[in-house]
Amino acid sequence: MRLPSAWRDLLALMPRAERASLLLYALLSVGAAVSGSVSAVLLVPLVQPGHAVPLASHDITTNAAWFALSGVAFAVLRWQAARLGAAQVARFAVRVRGDVHGHLLDVPLAALADASSAEIANVLTYNGEILVQGFSALQQLAVALLTSLVSIAFAFWISPVLMLAIPLLLCAIVITSRVTGREQAEVSRRYVADMTGLFWHSEDFPRRLRHVRSFGREAAERASYGEVSERLGQGYRRQLELVASSRLVLEAGAALGIAAMFLLADRWRGVDGTALIAVGLLLGRLLPYLVSTRQGFQQLRSAQPALALWQRYVALAPGPRPRVATAPQGDVRIEHLRVRPPREGITLEGLHLRPGELVLISGESGIGKSSLVDVLAGMSTPESFVASDGGVPMDFPAWRARVARGAYVSQGVRPWQRTVREVLAWADPDATEATLHEALRSVGLDRRVDASPHGLDLAVHGADSRLSGGELQRLMLAQVILRRPVLAVLDEATSALDAAAELAVLQAVKASLPGAMLVVVSHRDAVATLADVRVKVEGDRAMVEVFPPIRTIVPSRWQA
Q1: What does the alpha-carbon distance between residue 428 and residue 438 come to, in Å, rounded to a whole number?
Q2: Cα(389)–Cα(135) distance, integer angstroms
Q3: Helix pair angle (166-179, 181-202), 10° resolution
Q4: Neighbours of 441 (CB within 10 A)
Q5: Contact 323/397 with Cβ under 8 angstroms?
Q6: What is the pTM of this model?
Q7: What is the pLDDT of residue 506?
């Protein structure tokens, strides 16, 4: 039998190693269904002693013992199946979230150029939860199907005649699975899209709040958020209405089937009351499953658009893995470099990169500076690349290998760790406490940390210890120092500092990394006083200007 596509697609996400677990889950569910059916059959001679039914004994004590044993077996098997199912759902959740997150870590930046940050956040968070709910619904539907087959088989064994009422019930199930299917799928697709819209309104809320208040647009923001929320509420309402409508069809079909069964028992000779009671008990066990089955189908349909979104990101081709250069290399001269975007492209020629030197990249916003530094960091592939390493020609894969040990900090990046210690240890897990303090001192964050009773365990985002934007940028630069990179790229990474503090921090980073090539993107012309080389992006050209030997700048004491 061919499984429905939603079932197949969700099951395909389970690794092959889970097949044995899935088989055991099915066997436990069948065992629970058989035990429950036996218990229902053996209840009849206990209620009506002396009436013969299959599996029953003439001794009421024996019947009671077997009834109790089958009831306990049913409870234990169902409990064990539930535990196994919960473990499977947990592993499935880890798998779908880990797969998409791990895959996104490997895709080239160009593949994410058209993806919104809100949609990616949705894929990594709520969208995964919908998939987990869909897999859980798949388990519930499997149990309902197996239980129904076993109960119907027992009922058919007891009285084949009464089973003539089953087609009414089956028709109700088919009708309810078809009647609202298309609308449910459309409601689910809109629900996933609106949830992404809600992420747009929720991203970096404190910054967004400042922006909204400064423009006096609280009412517009409230209306926009309310519009998305209203659509989500309407979608949720419609989902529940569809569930209720289909439940009506199921319950009406069940009522008609039971009524037909009693009519058959009354009109058809050879059907006694004992068989009627036994079949009634067996089919009565199915009513809770029929009610929950519709909800399971609804969750499966909700999972389909979420699965399509998940598959779209997992299908992105991973970028090439750089080989890591091991032998010492000399200075690198980039003879020619061509990069897109922007649409017209940027051409760079004659850039000399030396360890210990700072290269300043400047230009108007949106002109393509980030695209240029992405290539220099080895994260994006250029249209053309001609360079030499210590006089030896090198291609772009060789350059990517050269800068594989890098550090890239952009303006908006924020640490997700809880404490200062965790943020720094992420960059260098083997660093000693003294090394961590030295890195903080280099970027001027030592006083802030030392003043706290928590020291290095100061909470980064705590209510009473929240670091400011400038302090967070200093902390990220301390990570760069601990990393000891071959190439460090700072893309507006000091924008939250004032001009004097920016110069002091950049000079400290440069002094702390004498073996690193330092590339800084900044709009402030004063940074040029620290630079050895300046690359000014104008139009489709990146002009290289070499400065005289570096001037010594004595910074004032660290400023906030």
Answers
A1: 13
A2: 53
A3: 40
A4: 17
A5: yes
A6: 0.71
A7: 94
